[in-house]
Write a structure and sequence with these properties.
16% of the residues lie in helices and 34% in strands. By secondary structure, the chain is α+β, with helices and mostly antiparallel strands. β1 and β2 form a beta hairpin.
């Protein structure tokens, strides 16, 4: 702290904010990619029971959206991944950098539930027993346990 001559007021040196610029450089790609999800939202409905499972499901149909998934999201969100429509594939997932318990639903080509995992915990791996065309990750508590194996879904 220094005193100005003649005025008697105190001036302070500028604060060093260089660390803020460094964190913005590292966080910018993550913020950019997670904010991109807000543009494509889908509603998903259980046709068998006529219940709405989710009103704002994130559509992750591209490779980059599927790669990022729900990582770095602080609020619980739901995500639907659609894979190649010609052949089913084995679905392997990890839950790194996701702080929420997820419910995983695997669907076939006709959007019929073939497998459900009710407790996919953070920082774990999961490999589906059945091959599928769609994978739904449900993080919102109000959307969980609204379907069972054999139900048909619409989105």
């Amino acid at each position: 702290i220094t005193t100005c001559k003649g005025r008697g007021s105190i001036t302070r040196p500028p604060r060093d904010r260089s660390w803020i610029d460094c964190t913005n450089i590292f966080l910018f790609p993550i913020i950019l990619l997670t904010s991109y999800y807000k543009h494509k939202l889908i509603m998903i409905k259980n046709i068998s029971t006529n219940q709405i499972i989710s009103k704002s499901e994130i559509d992750a149909s591209s490779f980059w959206r599927q790669t990022l998934g729900l990582m770095f999201h602080l609020k619980p969100r739901n995500l639907i991944m659609s894979f190649n429509q010609t052949t089913p594939r084995t679905i392997s997932l990890h839950n790194f950098f996701v702080i929420h318990n997820l419910e995983i639903i695997i669907l076939n080509k006709q959007k019929q539930v073939i497998e459900i995992n009710h407790s996919f915990k953070p920082f774990t791996f999961y490999k589906a027993k059945n091959k599928g065309h769609y994978c739904i990750e449900i993080a919102k508590q109000e959307s969980k346990k609204l379907c069972k194996i054999g139900d048909n879904l619409y989105f």
